[in-house]
Please model this.
Amino acid sequence: MIGASGLLLAGLAPARATEDQVAVLIEKLVGAAKPTPGRVKLDLPLLVENGNAVAMTVGVDGEDGVRSLHVFAERNPLPNVANFTFGPRSGHPRVSTRIRLATSQTVIAIAVMTDGSCWSDSVDLLVTLAACIE
Amino acid sequence: MSRVLINVPKSCKKGDILDVKVLISHPMESGQRRDEQGQIIPRKIINKFTCAWDGEEVFSADLFPAIAANPFLSFSALAVASGTLSMTWVDDDGHTQTELVAITVV
Model:
């Protein structure tokens, strides 16, 4: 009986990604090389009023040789947010979009350069109204 | 067919970097929500966006349920020669939508 109600509660509680899952995803992306903080800039508001649509800009300023940008949210139901790839005809390696945030958390951006180096930036933010996941 | 808004200059100088802004109407159902009966509403999102200029890749994005409804993307493209900017969205059901914009480079 207790077990059944525990299962029920587990079923209703929103699933969350963890820091470990994000770490595993980043390791898959960059291999053994640890991303160095710097060069890539993640722009997000520090205080989010509505988690359903949060304006996000991620980019590497004035830099050529960016292969891809990756964004992860540590406490969303799924850790992946988006992967962006830049082709030979892209201009600035910068992209804006709107994302969902389930709760207050750390959002991480990783830039993978064509020379193989990896750079990261992160933003700790507070979400007052979460994106609807229930 | 979903409604699409595309904002990009129709003409520019060679070597210019153009801002491309696109928005498509789509619910981006995350697969995390439940209906009144407690059943999970199946996931249905746009998972891929690509943009090419005369077949040469400009930008592409893998999107996940953490992207807000009616996904908006703003990125840039390098103007090398006149041509057609082709943008494609792909959703979970395999529906694709492609929009073309002719750009004159002088």
